[in-house]
Amino acid sequence: MHWLATVLIAALAASPTLAEARDRTQNTVKAAVAGRDAAPELKSSAALVVDQAAGRPLFSKNTDSVVPIASITKLMTAMVVLDAGLPLNEKIAITEADRDLIKGTRSRLHIGTVLTRRDLMQLALMASENRAAEALTRVFPGGTPGFVAAMNQKAMELGMWRTRFVDGTGLSSDNVSTARDLTKLVAAAHGYPLIREFTTDTGASVKMANGRVMAYRNSNRLVNNPEWQIGLSKTGYISEAGRCLVMQAEIAGKPVIIVLLDSWGKLTRIGDANRIKRWMETRYASNTSG
């Protein structure tokens, strides 16, 4: 009989507690699924909305599909730079090595422009400036290979098991992740005050090599919308990834993380975000009234 008692004790120790089981059940029941549960119809191919405080999903659609993530990559780029403790006031010159040889995109940062690391990070995050991101990776200790290795190491530390990075700009379609993994990225990035500030700046001006002052605007128009309370924002686009958007925001009194991937229309990621906002405000109105 002693052996039976031992087996039972071991089984109970290995099994989840009643509280854990209840939490898992509640998470499953309360997470609205695309196409069911009166959930909004989204144009994005993959989407996930997570209650940031409780850590549970509120809405899900294709959350584990591995897809290119375009410039959402730049959130990881910024974290790696900040984790390294590199001086933000160090001046860095844009060189020929920072040209986009993957997509051939143009940049307003001309060769020879000298900006601080802080300015480059701001433009990379706020305006999704590719040459700024490329310059940040190029001057990293160990160069671009060392930077990419640090990106992937950070992804592993965050538990982003289905994520891979090959460059710091997101121009490569080999930068891939899932909606589920990206909620972990956004949650981690939201812990950096400078990333919160830069990704929600509505605009910025920088002085170019010829002395001309160039104005930049945030690539996400919602940050300038008074109806939104956004704590972090990042857009992304390459043809393979479609239109992407990730945000930390407060909706209906809840801090949430929103991930929208592969939205097929130019404005549909914004439309999807607004559909989620209206749905949440309706669904949780009773929780915020009285």
- The shape, in one word, is globular
Distance between the termini: 58 Å
What structural class do helix, strand and pairing data support?
alpha+beta
Strands side by side in the biggest sheet: 1-3-2-12-11-10
Q: Can you count the helices?
A: 10
Query: Which runs of at least 5 residues are low in confidence (pLDDT < 50)?
Result: 1-29
Brief rundown of the structure:
The chain has 290 residues and is an alpha+beta fold. The chain contains ten helices and twelve strands.
Explain what the structure shows.
- With 290 residues, the chain is of the alpha+beta class.
- Helices cover 38% and strands 22% of the residues.
- It is built from 10 helices and 12 strands.
- A 6-stranded mixed sheet has the order 1-3-2-12-11-10, sandwiched between helices. The protein has a two-stranded antiparallel ribbon with strand order 4-7. A two-stranded antiparallel sheet has the order 5-6.
- β10 and β11 form a beta hairpin.
- It is globular and about 55 Å long.
- It starts with a helix and ends with a helix.
What structural keywords apply?
290 residues; alpha+beta; 6-stranded mixed β-sheet; globular; disordered N terminus
